[in-house]
Amino acid sequence: MSSSTKQPAITAPKLGIRALMMGVTLALVTGSVLVVGWLQERHTREALVSEVEARLLLEARNLALTSASAFMSEFPELTLHPITKELQSSQPELHLVTVVDRSGITQGHADSREIGQKASLPPELEPQSSSQPLKAGEVLMSSPTLFMAKAPVLHIQGETMGHAYIAIPRSYLDDKVSASRKQLFLALSAVLALAVLMTLIFVTRLLRPVAVLRKGLERIGQGDLETKLVLKDKTEFGMLASTINTMSSELQAAQDEMVEKERMAHELNLAREIQSSLLPDSNLETKGFVIQGAHEAAQEVGGDYYDMFELADGRIGFMVADVAGKGLVGCLIMSMLSALVGSFRDTYDSPMELLVKLDERLGENMKPGSFVTMFYGILDPDSGELVFSSAGHSPLIVYRGTSHTIEHYETQGIPLGAVRGGVIRSTLKDEAVTLMPGDCLLQYTDGINESFDPSGEEQFGFDRMGEVLAAQAGATPKQILENMQERLRDWQRGGSRLDDETLLVVQRRRAAVDSSSNSREQVQTAKWLHEAQEIGQSIVLKGNPTELDRIRPWLESIEFLANLEGAGLQLLSSAVYEACANIVEHGYQNDATKSFQLWWVQGSENPYFLILDQGLAYSADNWKESNFEDRDVRLRGRGIGLDIIHRVMTDVQFGAGENHENLTRLVFNPDIDWNLKHAS
Amino acid sequence: MPHNMETVVHPEERGWVLVAVTGTMDSTTAPRLLSTCRELKDDQNSVILDLSGVDFIASSGVGSLLAMAEEFRGAGVGIRFAALSTAVSSVIQLLNLNRFLEIFPTTEEARTAEAA
What we know:
- The complex is a heterodimer of chains A (680) and B (116).
- Chain A contains 15 helices and 22 strands.
- Chain A has 680 residues and is of the alpha+beta class.
- Chain A has a six-stranded antiparallel sheet. In chain A, strands 7-8-17-16-13-14 form a six-stranded antiparallel sheet. Chain A has a five-stranded antiparallel sheet with strand order 9-10-11-12-15.
- The longest helix of chain A is centred in the first third of the chain and has 56 residues, at 17-72.
- With 116 residues, chain B is an alpha/beta fold.
- Chains A and B meet through helix 13, helix 14 and helix 15 of A and helix 2 and helix 3 of B.
- Chain A: Residues 204-256 form the HAMP domain.
- Chain A: This is SpoIIE family protein phosphatase.
C-alpha cells in the first residue's frame, strides 16, 4: 500500500462559515435598517415641517383674529399682553409670539418690556415655499434657526391693522427627529441581536454534519476505507456523505487492484529472474557441432526452457521444454525440471527412459491438469547420431545440407505429468537420426509455429520455419536464430508476443579442406567431401536394408544418369546398391538408427559417387577379381558385389573422414559400353 | 516393393518343375529361393527358373544362381534359367557368367531343349 503523508490536524478554519454567515447577516440587516431609517427620517422630517407650518399658521391666524378686536380698543396691549404670555407659557417651544401694529410697534408680547417698542424680527428670514394654503397677507418664512408664520390683523372693513408673528426654532423639529432616530436605533439593535442569534443557531445546526464528514474524510486519509460514514441528513450533506461512502468503496477496490497488480509485477520479475538464471548463457561447441539456443519471453512469462550439456560419456544432451502454466508456478516447475534433468541425465542412456523418470518425479509434485511437453536428445558427436524422444513436444525439423531438403520427425509421446501412473512409457520411443556435415536441426516451442499474424487468422507454421532454415544454409547457428526471430517479428508485425518463443539449433559444420593435415590421403578425402557438399546431390539413407530400395528412384531423379543408354542405369544402380548394401550389412549390421549419406558429384573431372558412413571400417582395398572359373567360387556364391562395382566403375577408392568416418568414392566410367557388347 | 519375392512352383511333365520368380533377389530373398530349389533337387526334380518377373538382382542373388547351378550339376539334376529380365541379364552379362548357367530366352524353349 502506498504510504500517505501525515497532514497536521486542522483544528479551526481560517474563515469559519459561521462567522461568515453572521457577518453577512449583520451587514444585510444593518444595511437594510439604515436605508429604511434614512428614508423614514426624510419622510418624518417633511411631515414634521408641514405640521409645524400648519400649526404656526393656525396660531398666527388665531392671534391675528384675537388681536383684531384688541386693536379696536384704546389699549390693545392690555389685552394682547396676557394673551401672548398665555400662549407662550402654554407652548414653551414657541420662540416668538408677538403682535405688531401698522407702524411696527410691538403691541402684544409675553415680555412686557417689549411692548411699545419698535418690533425687531429675527434676522435672515426668507419666505418659505409651502404646501399650506395661505390667505392674503399671510407669509411663511424660515431662517437657519427658525420657522415663522405671519398673519395680518384685519379690521372689520378689511383694512390691515398690524401683523401677528409666531416663530418656532428649528431645533424643535430636530429634537423630534432625533427622538424618532433613537427609537429606530433601539429597534435596529434588537433586530440585529435577534438576527445574529438566529443565524448562529441555524448555521450551527446546518453545519453539524460537516464535523461528521470531516472525521470520515480524515479516516479515509489515514487509510481506513472500511468504516462507512453514518449521516442522517436530508440536505446536500447527506448526499455528500453517500458520495463519500461510494468513493471510499471505489478507492478500496482500486487500492486492492493496485496491490494485486504490484504483487503480480513482483511475481513476474521474480519469474523472469528465475527463468533467465536457468537458461544457458552461451552456446556449446564440440567436434564439429555447434548447439545454440535463443529465448524471448512473452509479456507474461511463459514456461519455456531449454538446455544443452556435455554428458559424462562425452556425448551431448540437449532439451527443449514447455511448461503449461505461466508465471511463478511455471517457473517453479521449470526449476524442478532443470534440477531433475541435472541429476538423472548421466543415469539414463536412453532419452525415453529419462523422460519416463521425469514424468514419474514431476507427477509427484505437479498439480493435476498441469503438464510439460519436452524434447530430449542425446547426440554422439563422433558419429553424428542423435537419439531422441519427445513427450508431446513439437516435431523435430532437420535440414539436410546436401540435398537441401527439410525433414520432420514427429513422435507420439504424451506430455510429462499429463497422465499419472507411468502411462507415458507406452507412448514414448527412442528414435534416431544421423546428422551429416552441413545438416542442421531445429527444435522449438509452440510459441514459434503457433505465432499468429496480426489478423489472428494464420499461424507461422512449420513450413515457414523450414523455409527460413533452408534459406539460412551455411549461416552460423547464431545467424539462423536471429533470422528466424526476425522473420517471426515480420510475421507478427508489431503484434504482442503471447507466448514464450524458444529456438534451439544444432548444426554440424561442413567438412573443411584442411591442407595442413598430416596425411596426403586425409587431404584428398577432405577435398572429395568438400566438393560433394558444395556441388553434389545427395540422399541420406538409414542402416536398414529396405532403405536400399530408395537408391534406384534417386538415381532416376538425376538427369545425367536417367539419360544413360541401354542397361546403364540398371548397372549403375546395381553397383551403388552393392556399395551401400555393404555399409548396411557389414558396417552398420542392419542398425536402422544409423544413417549414411550418398552423393552424386559432377565436378570438373570424371563424375563420381561418394558415400560417407560411420560404420565399421572395411578393408576393401585389397580386393581381387573373383575367378568364376573356380567351381568353389561359384558354389560359395559370395563376394560378387565388389565385382559388380569394379566392373561398372572406373575406380573405387576408400578413405577416412576427419572424425573417423568412412568415405567410399566410386568413379563413373564414361567409356563403358552400356549395351555390354564386350560381353558375349 | 522391398524384399518382396514370390516363387510359384508348377510341376510339369517329365519330372520338370517350373519355378516362376518375381520381385527382388537380394540377400534376404535369395536364400529362400535357394532352399526351395534345394528341396526340389533333393526330390530329383529338374527345375526351370522363370526369371522374367525379377526386377532387381543383387550380388547375393547372382551368387545364389551360381551356387544353385553347381549344386544341381553336382547332384546330376537339371536346372535351366529362362526368360531373364533386363535386370538379371545385364548383371549376368556384366560378370560374364553366361557360360556357367544354362540360359534360355523363353520357358518354352527351356522345356523343349535337349539335355546338354
